[in-house]
Hints:
The protein is mainly β. 9% of the residues lie in helices and 36% in strands.
Amino acid sequence: MAELRFVINDTKTGKSYQKALEDESLVGKRIGETIVGDFLGLEGYELQIRGGSDFAGFPMRNDIEGPIRKKALLGSGVGVKIDRKGMKKRKTVCGNQVTIKTAQLNLSVKKYGPKPLDDIFGKDAKAE
Length: 128
């Protein structure tokens, strides 16, 4: 599996942190599921999958079921920009399930652990 990039959003401060891992433990999970943050080094944290994109840059949508890429007729939401009222576009989007072709996952914090995220990720950014 290729490297999977995690974007973790701290809902209290509004900051986002990135971490990249080669991890296959989330394959099969869906948008909206809650996961434990231990595999990212976030002991005590619970994270919710909010979205993501595949290796080609196509966004994941919650209303497309399964691990597929599909050309859907969309009127609003993720992956489409509507210019006029009532207009729909056919756009390629990914399903709501994490696969080995997923390149990025967006996560938001639902339960905080003992250490703040700024302490965990701030030291890594200064070292680089």
